[in-house]
Amino acid sequence: MAEEQQLQVLMARQPVYTKSQDVVAFELLFRDSDGRFVEGLKDDEATLGVLLGTYSSIAKGGSVKALPCFLKVTDSFLLNNDLPELPKQSFVLELLGHSNVTPALIARVKDLARQGYRLALADYDPRDPKFEPLLNIVHVLKLDIQLLGLDNIPPLLQKLRPYQLELLADKVETQDEFRQCLEMGFALYMGYFLSKPEPVKGKKITGNKVVLLQVLTELQRPNATAQTIEQVALQDPALTYRILKVVNSAAFNLRREISSLSHAITLLGIDQIKRWVLLFLSAADKRKPDELTRNMLLRGRMCELLAEMMGRDEPINHFIVGLLSQLDVLLDMSMGDLMDQVPLQQDMKEALLERSHSYGELLMQVEYYERGEFDKLSRLLDRPFYEVAYRHSLNWSQQVLQAMQG
Protein backbone atom coordinates (compact mmCIF):
# COMPACT_ATOMS: atom_id res chain seq x y z
CA MET A 1 0.00 0.00 0.00
CA ALA A 2 2.86 2.40 0.78
CA GLU A 3 3.82 2.65 -2.88
CA GLU A 4 0.30 3.63 -4.01
CA GLN A 5 0.25 7.15 -5.41
CA GLN A 6 -2.46 9.46 -4.07
CA LEU A 7 -4.70 11.04 -6.70
CA GLN A 8 -6.75 14.18 -6.25
CA VAL A 9 -9.83 12.42 -7.54
CA LEU A 10 -12.28 9.85 -6.21
CA MET A 11 -12.90 7.22 -8.84
CA ALA A 12 -14.92 4.00 -8.89
CA ARG A 13 -16.02 1.83 -11.79
CA GLN A 14 -19.31 0.23 -12.69
CA PRO A 15 -19.46 -2.74 -15.09
CA VAL A 16 -21.24 -2.70 -18.44
CA TYR A 17 -22.59 -6.20 -19.18
CA THR A 18 -23.58 -8.13 -22.28
CA LYS A 19 -26.67 -10.35 -22.58
CA SER A 20 -24.65 -13.25 -21.15
CA GLN A 21 -23.58 -11.05 -18.18
CA ASP A 22 -19.96 -10.82 -19.32
CA VAL A 23 -18.29 -7.48 -18.60
CA VAL A 24 -17.30 -5.66 -21.81
CA ALA A 25 -16.61 -2.14 -20.47
CA PHE A 26 -16.64 -0.04 -17.32
CA GLU A 27 -18.31 3.27 -16.67
CA LEU A 28 -16.15 5.56 -14.56
CA LEU A 29 -17.77 7.29 -11.57
CA PHE A 30 -15.61 10.17 -10.39
CA ARG A 31 -15.26 13.40 -8.47
CA ASP A 32 -12.29 15.73 -8.04
CA SER A 33 -11.84 18.14 -5.12
CA ASP A 34 -14.05 20.68 -6.95
CA GLY A 35 -16.71 18.10 -7.73
CA ARG A 36 -15.49 17.76 -11.34
CA PHE A 37 -13.18 15.32 -13.01
CA VAL A 38 -12.87 15.25 -16.71
CA GLU A 39 -11.65 18.86 -17.11
CA GLY A 40 -8.60 18.00 -15.00
CA LEU A 41 -7.67 15.00 -17.12
CA LYS A 42 -5.97 17.13 -19.74
CA ASP A 43 -3.02 18.00 -17.51
CA ASP A 44 -3.07 15.07 -15.11
CA GLU A 45 -1.00 12.26 -16.54
CA ALA A 46 -0.92 10.41 -13.20
CA THR A 47 -4.71 9.99 -13.14
CA LEU A 48 -4.79 8.96 -16.79
CA GLY A 49 -2.04 6.39 -16.16
CA VAL A 50 -3.87 4.86 -13.19
CA LEU A 51 -7.10 4.91 -15.15
CA LEU A 52 -5.60 2.94 -18.01
CA GLY A 53 -3.48 0.70 -15.79
CA THR A 54 -5.91 -0.29 -13.05
CA TYR A 55 -9.46 0.88 -13.65
CA SER A 56 -9.79 -0.59 -17.11
CA SER A 57 -8.26 -4.02 -16.44
CA ILE A 58 -10.08 -7.27 -15.76
CA ALA A 59 -8.96 -10.85 -15.01
CA LYS A 60 -10.60 -13.36 -17.30
CA GLY A 61 -9.76 -17.05 -17.53
CA GLY A 62 -6.46 -16.61 -15.71
CA SER A 63 -5.15 -13.64 -17.74
CA VAL A 64 -5.62 -9.87 -17.54
CA LYS A 65 -6.98 -7.70 -20.34
CA ALA A 66 -7.96 -4.06 -20.68
CA LEU A 67 -11.56 -3.08 -21.40
CA PRO A 68 -12.81 0.28 -22.69
CA CYS A 69 -14.09 2.84 -20.18
CA PHE A 70 -17.14 5.04 -20.63
CA LEU A 71 -15.96 8.57 -19.79
CA LYS A 72 -18.62 11.21 -19.12
CA VAL A 73 -17.70 14.42 -20.93
CA THR A 74 -19.13 17.89 -20.51
CA ASP A 75 -19.81 20.39 -23.29
CA SER A 76 -17.01 22.66 -22.05
CA PHE A 77 -14.53 19.78 -22.04
CA LEU A 78 -15.41 18.91 -25.62
CA LEU A 79 -15.52 22.46 -26.94
CA ASN A 80 -12.89 24.35 -24.90
CA ASN A 81 -10.19 21.76 -24.35
CA ASP A 82 -8.00 19.89 -26.70
CA LEU A 83 -8.75 16.30 -25.80
CA PRO A 84 -5.76 14.73 -24.09
CA GLU A 85 -4.18 11.88 -26.00
CA LEU A 86 -6.91 9.41 -25.10
CA PRO A 87 -6.33 6.07 -26.79
CA LYS A 88 -9.41 5.59 -28.99
CA GLN A 89 -9.75 1.89 -28.19
CA SER A 90 -9.66 2.62 -24.43
CA PHE A 91 -12.51 5.12 -24.09
CA VAL A 92 -16.12 5.61 -25.06
CA LEU A 93 -16.93 9.33 -24.76
CA GLU A 94 -20.31 9.72 -23.08
CA LEU A 95 -22.34 12.87 -23.82
CA LEU A 96 -24.72 13.96 -21.08
CA GLY A 97 -28.43 14.64 -21.48
CA HIS A 98 -28.13 18.20 -20.18
CA SER A 99 -25.72 19.07 -23.00
CA ASN A 100 -26.54 22.23 -24.89
CA VAL A 101 -26.84 20.74 -28.38
CA THR A 102 -25.52 23.63 -30.47
CA PRO A 103 -24.28 23.46 -34.09
CA ALA A 104 -20.73 23.77 -32.67
CA LEU A 105 -21.24 20.76 -30.40
CA ILE A 106 -22.74 18.69 -33.24
CA ALA A 107 -19.78 19.57 -35.47
CA ARG A 108 -17.32 18.63 -32.70
CA VAL A 109 -19.04 15.30 -32.04
CA LYS A 110 -19.07 14.50 -35.77
CA ASP A 111 -15.36 15.27 -35.92
CA LEU A 112 -14.62 12.96 -32.97
CA ALA A 113 -16.61 10.17 -34.64
CA ARG A 114 -14.60 10.73 -37.84
CA GLN A 115 -11.38 10.45 -35.81
CA GLY A 116 -12.51 7.00 -34.68
CA TYR A 117 -13.80 7.70 -31.16
CA ARG A 118 -16.76 5.68 -29.95
CA LEU A 119 -19.52 7.90 -28.62
CA ALA A 120 -22.42 7.28 -26.25
CA LEU A 121 -25.41 9.43 -25.30
CA ALA A 122 -26.84 9.28 -21.77
CA ASP A 123 -30.06 10.64 -20.22
CA TYR A 124 -31.95 10.39 -23.52
CA ASP A 125 -35.44 11.92 -23.36
CA PRO A 126 -37.56 10.92 -26.39
CA ARG A 127 -39.81 14.00 -25.89
CA ASP A 128 -36.94 16.42 -26.41
CA PRO A 129 -36.19 17.08 -30.11
CA LYS A 130 -32.69 18.45 -29.33
CA PHE A 131 -31.30 14.88 -29.24
CA GLU A 132 -32.37 14.10 -32.81
CA PRO A 133 -29.16 15.25 -34.59
CA LEU A 134 -27.00 13.27 -32.12
CA LEU A 135 -28.79 9.98 -32.81
CA ASN A 136 -27.25 9.94 -36.28
CA ILE A 137 -23.73 10.32 -34.86
CA VAL A 138 -23.40 8.38 -31.58
CA HIS A 139 -22.84 4.63 -31.44
CA VAL A 140 -24.36 3.73 -28.05
CA LEU A 141 -27.62 5.04 -26.58
CA LYS A 142 -28.23 4.66 -22.84
CA LEU A 143 -31.86 4.37 -21.81
CA ASP A 144 -32.69 4.87 -18.13
CA ILE A 145 -35.35 2.19 -17.72
CA GLN A 146 -36.50 3.56 -14.33
CA LEU A 147 -37.09 7.02 -15.74
CA LEU A 148 -38.68 5.89 -18.99
CA GLY A 149 -40.72 3.02 -17.48
CA LEU A 150 -40.43 -0.52 -18.86
CA ASP A 151 -43.91 -0.40 -20.42
CA ASN A 152 -42.99 2.65 -22.52
CA ILE A 153 -39.80 1.16 -23.95
CA PRO A 154 -41.04 -1.25 -26.71
CA PRO A 155 -42.66 1.51 -28.83
CA LEU A 156 -39.60 3.70 -28.27
CA LEU A 157 -37.30 0.93 -29.52
CA GLN A 158 -39.39 0.74 -32.71
CA LYS A 159 -38.82 4.46 -33.30
CA LEU A 160 -35.08 4.13 -32.67
CA ARG A 161 -34.57 1.15 -34.96
CA PRO A 162 -33.62 3.18 -38.11
CA TYR A 163 -30.65 4.70 -36.27
CA GLN A 164 -29.00 1.28 -35.78
CA LEU A 165 -27.72 2.17 -32.32
CA GLU A 166 -26.25 -0.18 -29.77
CA LEU A 167 -28.80 0.10 -26.96
CA LEU A 168 -27.74 0.08 -23.31
CA ALA A 169 -30.34 -0.53 -20.59
CA ASP A 170 -29.31 1.64 -17.64
CA LYS A 171 -30.44 1.38 -13.97
CA VAL A 172 -31.41 -2.29 -14.27
CA GLU A 173 -32.04 -3.03 -10.60
CA THR A 174 -33.44 -6.58 -10.49
CA GLN A 175 -32.98 -9.90 -12.28
CA ASP A 176 -36.60 -9.62 -13.47
CA GLU A 177 -35.90 -6.23 -15.09
CA PHE A 178 -32.79 -7.73 -16.70
CA ARG A 179 -34.89 -10.55 -18.20
CA GLN A 180 -37.48 -8.10 -19.55
CA CYS A 181 -34.78 -5.93 -21.14
CA LEU A 182 -33.18 -9.06 -22.59
CA GLU A 183 -36.47 -9.95 -24.30
CA MET A 184 -36.70 -6.41 -25.71
CA GLY A 185 -33.32 -6.92 -27.38
CA PHE A 186 -30.95 -4.58 -25.50
CA ALA A 187 -27.28 -5.31 -26.26
CA LEU A 188 -25.75 -3.84 -23.07
CA TYR A 189 -26.80 -3.52 -19.42
CA MET A 190 -25.84 -1.46 -16.38
CA GLY A 191 -27.21 -1.37 -12.87
CA TYR A 192 -27.16 -3.32 -9.63
CA PHE A 193 -29.25 -6.29 -10.78
CA LEU A 194 -26.36 -8.63 -9.98
CA SER A 195 -26.30 -7.44 -6.37
CA LYS A 196 -29.82 -8.61 -5.61
CA PRO A 197 -30.43 -12.21 -4.51
CA GLU A 198 -33.35 -14.24 -5.82
CA PRO A 199 -33.87 -16.39 -2.72
CA VAL A 200 -35.03 -19.95 -3.32
CA LYS A 201 -37.22 -21.02 -0.39
CA GLY A 202 -35.82 -23.76 1.81
CA LYS A 203 -32.51 -23.80 -0.07
CA LYS A 204 -29.52 -25.31 1.74
CA ILE A 205 -25.83 -24.82 1.10
CA THR A 206 -24.57 -27.77 -0.95
CA GLY A 207 -21.49 -29.20 -2.68
CA ASN A 208 -17.97 -28.18 -1.76
CA LYS A 209 -19.42 -25.10 -0.02
CA VAL A 210 -20.51 -27.50 2.77
CA VAL A 211 -16.90 -28.63 3.26
CA LEU A 212 -15.79 -25.01 3.28
CA LEU A 213 -18.30 -24.23 6.02
CA GLN A 214 -17.11 -27.26 8.00
CA VAL A 215 -13.52 -25.99 7.69
CA LEU A 216 -14.71 -22.51 8.73
CA THR A 217 -16.46 -24.01 11.77
CA GLU A 218 -13.26 -25.84 12.74
CA LEU A 219 -11.26 -22.63 12.28
CA GLN A 220 -13.55 -20.88 14.79
CA ARG A 221 -13.00 -23.54 17.50
CA PRO A 222 -10.64 -22.22 20.22
CA ASN A 223 -8.76 -25.56 20.47
CA ALA A 224 -8.47 -26.20 16.73
CA THR A 225 -5.06 -27.31 15.49
CA ALA A 226 -3.42 -27.31 12.08
CA GLN A 227 -4.00 -31.08 11.91
CA THR A 228 -7.72 -31.00 12.84
CA ILE A 229 -8.36 -28.27 10.25
CA GLU A 230 -6.48 -30.20 7.57
CA GLN A 231 -8.46 -33.37 8.31
CA VAL A 232 -11.76 -31.57 7.67
CA ALA A 233 -10.42 -29.96 4.49
CA LEU A 234 -9.16 -33.27 3.09
CA GLN A 235 -12.78 -34.42 2.68
CA ASP A 236 -12.44 -32.47 -0.57
CA PRO A 237 -8.87 -33.03 -1.86
CA ALA A 238 -9.48 -30.89 -4.96
CA LEU A 239 -10.41 -28.00 -2.70
CA THR A 240 -7.25 -28.42 -0.61
CA TYR A 241 -5.21 -28.43 -3.82
CA ARG A 242 -6.88 -25.24 -5.05
CA ILE A 243 -6.35 -23.46 -1.72
CA LEU A 244 -2.64 -24.36 -1.80
CA LYS A 245 -2.41 -23.17 -5.40
CA VAL A 246 -3.77 -19.75 -4.43
CA VAL A 247 -1.58 -19.63 -1.30
CA ASN A 248 1.48 -20.21 -3.50
CA SER A 249 0.39 -17.67 -6.13
CA ALA A 250 1.92 -14.26 -6.72
CA ALA A 251 -0.94 -12.59 -4.83
CA PHE A 252 0.56 -13.65 -1.52
CA ASN A 253 4.29 -13.11 -2.20
CA LEU A 254 5.60 -16.15 -0.32
CA ARG A 255 9.32 -16.96 -0.47
CA ARG A 256 8.89 -20.74 -0.35
CA GLU A 257 6.36 -23.21 -1.70
CA ILE A 258 3.83 -24.56 0.77
CA SER A 259 3.01 -28.22 0.28
CA SER A 260 0.26 -29.01 2.80
CA LEU A 261 -2.57 -27.20 4.53
CA SER A 262 -1.14 -27.93 8.00
CA HIS A 263 2.20 -26.51 6.80
CA ALA A 264 0.39 -23.38 5.58
CA ILE A 265 -1.45 -22.97 8.90
CA THR A 266 1.76 -23.42 10.92
CA LEU A 267 3.64 -20.94 8.76
CA LEU A 268 0.95 -18.34 8.19
CA GLY A 269 -1.54 -18.68 11.03
CA ILE A 270 -5.21 -19.52 11.25
CA ASP A 271 -6.41 -16.03 10.23
CA GLN A 272 -4.75 -16.30 6.83
CA ILE A 273 -6.19 -19.78 6.20
CA LYS A 274 -9.59 -18.41 7.19
CA ARG A 275 -9.14 -15.83 4.44
CA TRP A 276 -8.53 -18.46 1.75
CA VAL A 277 -11.37 -20.70 2.86
CA LEU A 278 -13.62 -17.65 2.56
CA LEU A 279 -12.19 -16.78 -0.86
CA PHE A 280 -13.33 -20.16 -2.14
CA LEU A 281 -16.67 -19.81 -0.40
CA SER A 282 -17.13 -16.65 -2.51
CA ALA A 283 -16.08 -18.28 -5.79
CA ALA A 284 -18.94 -18.16 -8.28
CA ASP A 285 -20.34 -21.32 -9.80
CA LYS A 286 -20.96 -21.51 -13.54
CA ARG A 287 -24.37 -19.86 -13.29
CA LYS A 288 -23.01 -16.65 -11.78
CA PRO A 289 -20.70 -14.18 -13.54
CA ASP A 290 -17.10 -13.69 -12.40
CA GLU A 291 -17.91 -10.04 -11.73
CA LEU A 292 -19.79 -11.06 -8.59
CA THR A 293 -16.76 -12.86 -7.14
CA ARG A 294 -14.56 -9.94 -8.18
CA ASN A 295 -16.79 -7.49 -6.34
CA MET A 296 -16.93 -9.69 -3.24
CA LEU A 297 -13.12 -9.84 -3.16
CA LEU A 298 -12.86 -6.09 -3.69
CA ARG A 299 -15.32 -5.36 -0.89
CA GLY A 300 -13.56 -7.68 1.54
CA ARG A 301 -10.11 -6.24 0.87
CA MET A 302 -11.28 -2.61 0.96
CA CYS A 303 -13.09 -3.15 4.29
CA GLU A 304 -9.90 -4.66 5.68
CA LEU A 305 -7.69 -1.81 4.41
CA LEU A 306 -10.00 0.90 5.77
CA ALA A 307 -10.03 -0.92 9.14
CA GLU A 308 -6.21 -0.95 9.15
CA MET A 309 -5.98 2.72 8.17
CA MET A 310 -8.42 3.67 10.95
CA GLY A 311 -6.67 1.49 13.55
CA ARG A 312 -9.72 -0.73 14.08
CA ASP A 313 -9.34 -4.09 15.86
CA GLU A 314 -9.21 -7.35 13.88
CA PRO A 315 -9.07 -6.12 10.27
CA ILE A 316 -9.50 -9.77 9.13
CA ASN A 317 -13.05 -9.69 10.53
CA HIS A 318 -13.80 -6.60 8.44
CA PHE A 319 -12.47 -8.54 5.45
CA ILE A 320 -14.84 -11.44 6.21
CA VAL A 321 -17.87 -9.15 6.53
CA GLY A 322 -17.06 -7.35 3.26
CA LEU A 323 -16.48 -10.60 1.42
CA LEU A 324 -19.64 -12.31 2.68
CA SER A 325 -21.87 -9.25 2.10
CA GLN A 326 -22.95 -10.67 -1.28
CA LEU A 327 -22.93 -14.37 -0.40
CA ASP A 328 -26.75 -14.20 -0.46
CA VAL A 329 -26.58 -13.21 -4.15
CA LEU A 330 -24.00 -15.88 -4.96
CA LEU A 331 -26.04 -18.67 -3.38
CA ASP A 332 -29.57 -17.29 -4.04
CA MET A 333 -30.47 -17.47 -0.37
CA SER A 334 -31.71 -14.78 2.00
CA MET A 335 -29.00 -13.36 4.27
CA GLY A 336 -31.08 -14.43 7.29
CA ASP A 337 -31.11 -18.10 6.17
CA LEU A 338 -27.41 -17.91 5.41
CA MET A 339 -26.55 -16.56 8.84
CA ASP A 340 -28.35 -19.57 10.36
CA GLN A 341 -25.91 -21.84 8.49
CA VAL A 342 -22.63 -19.89 8.47
CA PRO A 343 -20.51 -20.04 11.65
CA LEU A 344 -19.71 -16.38 12.45
CA GLN A 345 -19.63 -14.40 15.68
CA GLN A 346 -22.84 -12.52 16.47
CA ASP A 347 -21.59 -8.95 15.84
CA MET A 348 -20.42 -9.98 12.35
CA LYS A 349 -23.79 -11.57 11.60
CA GLU A 350 -25.55 -8.39 12.75
CA ALA A 351 -23.25 -6.31 10.54
CA LEU A 352 -24.30 -8.39 7.53
CA LEU A 353 -27.99 -8.31 8.40
CA GLU A 354 -28.33 -4.74 9.72
CA ARG A 355 -25.05 -2.93 8.80
CA SER A 356 -24.44 -2.42 12.54
CA HIS A 357 -21.22 -2.30 14.64
CA SER A 358 -17.81 -1.16 13.33
CA TYR A 359 -17.97 -3.95 10.70
CA GLY A 360 -21.28 -2.76 9.26
CA GLU A 361 -20.21 0.88 9.35
CA LEU A 362 -17.12 0.24 7.21
CA LEU A 363 -19.06 -2.05 4.87
CA MET A 364 -21.47 0.84 4.23
CA GLN A 365 -18.51 3.14 3.45
CA VAL A 366 -17.30 0.66 0.84
CA GLU A 367 -20.82 0.31 -0.63
CA TYR A 368 -21.09 4.11 -0.93
CA TYR A 369 -17.71 4.27 -2.63
CA GLU A 370 -18.41 1.54 -5.18
CA ARG A 371 -21.69 3.24 -6.13
CA GLY A 372 -19.94 6.58 -6.61
CA GLU A 373 -21.94 8.12 -3.72
CA PHE A 374 -18.84 9.98 -2.56
CA ASP A 375 -20.76 12.67 -0.63
CA LYS A 376 -21.88 9.99 1.86
CA LEU A 377 -18.33 9.00 2.83
CA SER A 378 -17.55 9.75 6.48
CA ARG A 379 -14.75 12.11 7.47
CA LEU A 380 -12.94 9.36 9.38
CA LEU A 381 -10.25 9.39 6.69
CA ASP A 382 -8.99 11.97 4.22
CA ARG A 383 -10.77 11.41 0.89
CA PRO A 384 -7.72 10.33 -1.16
CA PHE A 385 -7.20 7.35 1.18
CA TYR A 386 -10.53 5.88 0.08
CA GLU A 387 -9.42 5.95 -3.56
CA VAL A 388 -6.04 4.41 -2.73
CA ALA A 389 -7.78 1.60 -0.80
CA TYR A 390 -10.23 1.02 -3.66
CA ARG A 391 -7.51 0.96 -6.29
CA HIS A 392 -5.31 -1.38 -4.25
CA SER A 393 -8.34 -3.66 -3.71
CA LEU A 394 -9.06 -3.68 -7.46
CA ASN A 395 -5.51 -4.86 -8.14
CA TRP A 396 -5.61 -7.40 -5.33
CA SER A 397 -8.97 -8.87 -6.40
CA GLN A 398 -7.57 -9.16 -9.92
CA GLN A 399 -4.56 -11.16 -8.74
CA VAL A 400 -6.61 -13.45 -6.52
CA LEU A 401 -9.20 -14.11 -9.21
CA GLN A 402 -6.44 -14.96 -11.65
CA ALA A 403 -4.93 -17.43 -9.17
CA MET A 404 -8.36 -18.96 -8.47
CA GLN A 405 -9.09 -19.38 -12.19
CA GLY A 406 -5.59 -20.37 -13.26
UniProtKB/TrEMBL annotation:
Residues 270-406 form the HD-GYP domain. It comes from the Bacteria. PROSITE patterns: HD_GYP, HDOD. Pfam families: HDOD. Residues 205-390 form the HDOD domain. This is HDOD domain-containing protein. It comes from Marinobacterium weihaiense.
